[in-house]
Design goal:
- It is built from nine helices and 17 strands.
- By secondary structure, it is an alpha+beta fold.
- The chain has three domains: about 45 residues, no CATH class; about 170 residues, RlpA-like domain (Barwin-like endoglucanases, Beta Barrel); about 150 residues, Barwin-like endoglucanases (Ribosomal Protein L25, Chain P, Beta Barrel).
- A hairpin with a 2-residue loop joins β7 and β8.
- α2 packs antiparallel against α3.
- The two termini are about 45 Å apart.
Length: about 400
């Protein structure tokens, strides 16, 4: 089915919300989904949401003078490999290439070339959630067999991905995922429906791993490495997703009284799963989202993020690109996991994630291996964010 054939179907889906709710006792009881409908009763419009980025001053950035900017230089250059293609970023990125990796020079560069913009939530609040992620290592094999009985899958042939931005520019960064059922596009299979016997997964196993819980968290992290029986390691990364929303299994356990909120870390969830093997499928299926992978070349650096450049441990974050421009420098002010010790540093918005939704929302990349995993699994902190943009760049949807 071509994009032109899909357009009227998608348009109907997108704008079908302009209708009244089921009949009410009186017109005053009617609730209008789309306030622009001429049949809706007159109602006071809601207050407009706060602008996602608001102009700030350098002295507002908590810990700006204390950071080791030299550590962020490499991550900045990685972002610039992509940003330099945009006219507004070209001059700053070309200058960054020739800068020495020294604190004073880099700080002066940002303060002369950039302006800080505070990230603000729609309700006007300035704090949000900062979590952590990492690149795990799993034991696995190219062939199934004890103890490797759980498959890591590539993208199924029947998965359809429609970039809505190609039809409606205002929906840039939105994608519709589904499958064909006759002439209809229907939602793709959920995690619970994607069993090893599913025809969609036939022949799509890339590797087989030993631990289903570690495999689940590999999907959450988005990339990782698999150590084969001969000791060789291969890297795998996100290729696609089934279109279902991400649901936190930690929250699922808390809501059912299985864990306390402070216990719902990655380590706490893993301990619960191993203590309750008979409920493992129930737990994992609480998250209908399912990630498909591809094998990646090992370049000796970090895994590639959504920007397409390698992530830098401690200097890369995942963001919601609807609020924070992908690739941009961000100054992050938060605290270390399970601590009040400040973690304030310049990072680069080089990745996205299914669970990373909202303006003041970041996922901090800790790096590879068990130590990084220990930090990432415990990180659930409050934080503030400032985006640094070239001085001439003031998009219309930002507050001047």
């Amino acid at each position: 089915m071509s994009m032109r054939q899909l357009a009227p179907v998608l348009g109907a889906l997108l704008f079908a919300g302009c209708a009244l709710q089921p009949p009410a006792a009186t017109q005053a009881d009617a609730a209008c989904v789309c306030p622009a409908c001429p049949v809706c009763p007159a109602v006071a419009p809601p207050p407009p949401p706060a602008k996602p980025l608001q102009a700030a001053r350098w002295e507002e950035l908590k810990g700006w003078r204390d950071d080791d900017f030299a550590e962020a230089h490499g991550a900045l250059l990685e972002s610039c490999r992509v940003l330099v293609r945009q006219p507004a970023w070209r001059a700053a990125c070309e200058e960054a290439q020739s800068l020495p990796a020294r604190d004073a020079a880099l700080r002066a560069f940002f303060e002369s070339r950039f302006r800080p913009w505070r990230v603000v939530n729609p309700d006007g609040s300035r704090e949000g959630l900062v979590t952590g992620y990492y690149e795990p290592l799993l034991k696995g094999s190219r062939e199934p067999g004890k103890p490797f009985g759980h498959a890591l899958y590539g993208v199924p042939d029947d998965l359809l991905v429609v970039d809505l931005g190609e039809l409606y520019p205002e929906l840039k960064n939105f994608r519709l995922r589904g499958r064909l059922d006759g002439r209809r596009i229907v939602p793709y299979w959920s995690r619970a429906e994607l069993t090893p016997q599913s025809p969609a997964l036939a022949g799509k196993a890339l590797y087989w791993v030993a631990d289903p819980v570690e495999l689940f968290f590999l999907q959450v992290q988005g990339s990782g490495r698999v150590e084969l029986p001969d000791g060789r390691r291969v890297r795998v990364g996100y290729a696609e997703q089934n279109g279902h929303p991400y649901r936190s299994i930690g929250r699922w356990l808390v809501e059912r009284g299985e864990l306390k909120l402070e216990q719902a870390s990655m380590q706490g969830i893993q301990a619960w799963a191993r203590a309750n093997p008979q409920r493992l499928h129930e737990l994992l299926n609480a998250n209908p989202s399912f990630v498909f992978f591809r094998e990646l070349p090992d370049n000796g650096g970090g895994p590639p993020g959504a920007l397409g450049v390698p992530l830098t441990p401690g200097r890369s974050i995942a963001v919601d690109p609807r609020a924070v421009p992908l690739g941009a420098p961000v100054f992050l002010a938060t605290t270390l996991p399970l601590s009040e010790q400040p973690l304030t540093r310049l990072v680069m918005a080089q990745d996205t994630g299914g669970a990373i939704k909202g303006a003041v929302r970041a996922d901090f990349f800790w790096g590879f291996g068990n130590e990084a995993g220990a930090q990432a699994g415990r990180m659930r902190q409050r934080g503030e964010m400032w985006v640094l943009l070239p001085s001439a760049l003031v998009p219309n949807n930002f507050s001047k």
